[in-house]
Amino acid sequence: MPYILEVQKFNIDGHNAYPESEHIGYINKVFKTKQEASDYYDKFNPHMRLLNAHKNWCSDYDPNSGLK
Q1: Residue 36 CB coordination number (10 Å)
Q2: d(C-alpha 23, C-alpha 1), whole Å
Q3: pLDDT, tens digit, 9 for 90 and up, residues 12-26
Q4: Which of 14, 24, 55, 58 has the fewest beta carbons under 10 Å from its own?
Q5: Looking at the 3D structure of the chain, how many domains does it have?
Q6: What is the DSSP secondary structure assignment for residue 2, as one 8-state letter?
Q7: How far is 6 from 19, CA to CA, in rounded Å?
Q8: Whole-angstrom Cα distance, residue 29 to residue 33?
């Protein structure tokens, strides 16, 4: 099964005025496994917590860009 990474914009006021996150697009790369996608994310986001740190395959939002 192929895997891709989705990019979302995190809205800090999401619970009040907007949905919590907004779909921005996808990373233009296809991965063979979840772990391969996670490793790619971790490599290119060294300032962030590991993608699967909470065992849910979801990232935190980036405090610099607001993307997740």
Answers
A1: 13
A2: 22
A3: 666 666 667 788 899
A4: 55
A5: 1
A6: -
A7: 16
A8: 12
